[in-house]
Amino acid sequence: MRQRIVAGNWKMNTTLEEGLQLAGDVAKDYIKNRPGDIELIMAPPFTHISELVKATAGSGVKYAAQNCASEKEGAYTGEVSVAMIRTTGATYVIIGHSERRTLFGEKDETLFKKVRLALEESLVPIFCCGELLEEREAGNHFEVVKKQLDNTLFRLDEVDFRKVIIAYEPVWAIGTGKTATPEQAQEMQAAIRKMIAERYDEETANDIPILYGGSCKASNAAEIFAQPDVDGGLIGGASLMADEFMSIARSF
Ligand code: PGA
Q1: Catalytic one among 97, 131, 141, 244?
Q2: Structurally, how many domains does the chain consist of?
């Protein structure tokens, strides 16, 4: 059975103090209630990760960075390398979030470099893909997502590809309160699985976790997670409230 995953992307929110409170509350709930067999991941800002890892040690909660540099080291002021992320105790890294693509101009080639560096450093990439509203309205959404994967993850060999997690996040659903319907999420995620089967094989396609992201919250998580090709969620806004986040985690 595929790993079920709930990951919280805090984006540029929380001071360190607020982060410690939030991560502490999540970890406490996780220890107490152990929502059945899921991997629980939090992606706080870089500046908090080490502290939160220490503060929640032993809880089983895992950490992700929200981004990483596309170069290994050197004169890249303000960038954070995969090796630096590794030393914080994070074991995952989100790559290709639509905010990185649209607000910071990250292109597929850059994202591919990031994926390779993350894998070299034994960090698990949580790779985001998804279409814009106009692309969906034009009926190009499958093509757009296929191209995003062809240009990045599908260039990996099977051994490396099997280490990644995919997050399907329709851009029109991120932070808008407009969730994809469970049917829309299922339709795309089944299509992604088919693309994987065509590029690699059925077994690989069946083993890769595919998360849904975009206005996922406690009130809609259960019906989305009930879809056969949805293995969990990448949660933005709703991951900033411990209760809400943990009730999403209990939605399988
Ligand atoms: P949202 O964000 O849940 O606030 O829509 C999801 C994401 O950006 O990963």
Answers
A1: 97
A2: 1
